[in-house]
Amino acid sequence: MPATEDRTSRNRVASRTSRPFTLWREVLTAYAAPALMAGTAGVVTGQQDLAVAACTSIAGPSAVVAFLVGAWLRHGGQPRRWTTTMPRAALTAALVITVAGAAALLGWFTAQWLPAHSPVPAAPWLERLRIDLPVSAALATAIVTLRWRSTTATSPA
Question: How confident is the model at residue 155 (pLDDT cuts 50, 70, 90)?
Fold first, then answer.
């Protein structure tokens, strides 16, 4: 009886890890998950700006980052050697720090530069970009990187 359970559990683990990395699914999930969670939180707490930001400055950048990071990791079907041999946690941390840093700079630059150099007035939604962009980017990068690594054949634990 225990031998049957071992084979069954191994088959379940194998079927979970053998599912291919599909970029469009990752991008769709990267948009839908934060939009639903932040939108629900905005509606429940009565924060209309959070409900609106859920579908714009939170979910939008998350989907864009998921696409860019996923496409970069796949590298045309031939992943870079160092991305498959580097420890999973180190790869994830390096990408999260890099992408979240770039998103933080973009959010800061947009919130400062746009009102000063365009007819767009300073607004609360611009200030939200300073937080929404790096948080969305960090979460999307971590999830996509971990999902991608779980589908690569040579991923060390």
Answer: very low
